[in-house]
Design brief:
34% helix
């Protein structure tokens, strides 16, 4: 082989090896960013408001796991978030069921790990919490002021018989919670 033919062959071979390395992930581009769950979780840090999709999804969970509570399924189409929502795990806590749904995404740019629902057995227990996969300091920086405003407004709006409350749990787990229990 002549020098130029050898160079051309080596060049082609290098290109093929490079393409193969890319194809099998040896030189893969950076992983795509985690899914934003902002439109699903919108409002939870502002008066514990729930989007229509969140409410329907939550109603589906109650109807499936506590059919005696009389909640009609919400028929939620969570298809846009299907890749970010894991399979729920249910734990019987006696007076309520804990339904923990793994999440893989972000809310307001902060990684989340799960949504935890507490559904009472016809006894008024009802709460949910977004658990974060981030340091407490990051969650505090992004959510503290919003939650404080939200908690103050909810306290002022409470009617005595039914008052919604919210806060950050930064000890043990890192979570933003909303409690609708009466």
């Amino acid at each position: 082989m002549t020098g130029s033919a050898t160079s051309a062959t080596v060049g082609r071979l290098a290109a093929v090896v490079s393409l193969l390395a890319f194809a099998i992930g040896l030189d893969a581009p950076p992983a795509a960013a985690q899914a934003s769950l902002d439109s699903l979780l919108a409002g939870l840090d502002d008066g514990c408001a729930r989007t229509a999709l969140f409410q329907a999804w939550q109603d589906d969970l109650v109807a499936r796991h506590l059919p005696d509570n009389g909640v009609a399924p919400g028929h939620a189409d969570v298809g846009a978030f299907a890749g970010a929502i894991g399979r729920e795990r249910v734990v019987d806590r006696g007076e309520w069921l804990e339904v923990k749904v793994p999440l893989q995404g972000t809310w307001r740019g902060v990684p989340v790990s799960a949504l935890v629902f507490s559904f009472g057995r016809q006894n008024g227990i009802y709460a949910h919490a977004v658990e974060f996969a981030a340091e407490a300091s990051t969650v505090r920086e992004v959510f503290q002021a919003r939650v404080e405003r939200s908690a103050a407004r909810l306290a002022a709006e409470g009617d005595g018989d039914f008052a919604v409350s919210t806060g950050l749990d930064l000890e043990g787990r890192v979570a933003l919670w909303c409690d609708f229990s009466n």
